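hey so u asked for the seq, here:
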Amino acid sequence: SASAAPIGPQLTNRLALDRRPSRRCRTSATIRAVMTPPDKLGAKPTGHNAPNPGVAERAILRTGSRMPLLGLGTWKIPKEQTPALVETAIRKGWRHLDCACDYGNEREVGAGIRAALTEDPTISRDDLWVTSKLWNTYHRHEHVRDACLRTLDDLGLEYLDLYLVHFPISLKFVPFETRYPPEWVHDPDASDPADRVMVHDPVPIAETWRAMEQLVDEGLVKNIGVCNFNVSLLTDLLATARVKPAVLQIESHPYLSQTHLVNYARSKQVHVTAFSPLGSAGYVEMGWTKPTEGAINEACVKAAATAHGVSPGQVLLRWALQRGTSAIPKTTKPGRLDENIDVFGWTLSDAEMSAIDALNRNKRYNDPAEFCVGMGGPCPIYD
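ran it, structure tokens below
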């Protein structure tokens, strides 16, 4: 149940009391030493106890860590639904959970994890892969560790498998006690609507990254990476990083394949995870697109679905995996958990892959150049 004892020692007091300097441990040395060739990405480990054999398929990161290729996205899952959905997902074989401070439901994700592990003692914490993300207001060096500890406390975990810089956008710090998660607008309660805007804080990415590296040194996270970075930002980070980014998470689906970026990242041994792999579905409720729009409705996708006896959504997920990326589809429907995970054991033909590749139109749904306009933006990070 959700009230089961948390995993490992409580971390609550660490936020206030643990201010020790980061200690160097063997983790970072291992990370620098173990390098996996790009052609080994996606190799299958043995001995994984997931009920569905397909979810044992994992990407081998540059660190030697094995990340499940398919993960459950938790963005926009309502808090009241999150514990049961996460528990059900783990029970059905999902082993990769993609979380973030900004999603506002990490405490509920943690409740679902505890419930699942209590219910089934054959599953251990080490069988799971939990990703979280550093929010924009915590980019200054002195805030990164506290932000990570808060996430660990909410999830009830002792470490993260992967911690990502959520956006290459740094905003003015908002203390936990003022508002958590802080979201985009610095003071949403300002009396003057003109003051309800983002307040930027020009923090160099290198400063944030040094603090991220120290989390690895300390053993709080096993891998670090970035989200929403373009080639230029990734190149600059790779040139200066002591601990190289292991993962790049980007929006990617047939309408936004980002092939050049995916190929570049792969050439640098940075694994790519696709968020919004089903395209427009998650953005309809936000008014950012129409229900009839999306690659899921394309004729070639439907034809492939018919040929393989699967759904169009499964075709899109299979396309993402076959092009060498991992994918983190989100759903609030327990029945879809079975469907979305059943994308192994069959493959799309070269012709089917090429037809879906040809759908690219550089259509981006999640773009701060657009959705930040009303917040005092825009933030055209992709231009």
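The first strand starts at residue 58 and ends at 60. The radius of gyration is 20 Å.
lmk if thats what u needed
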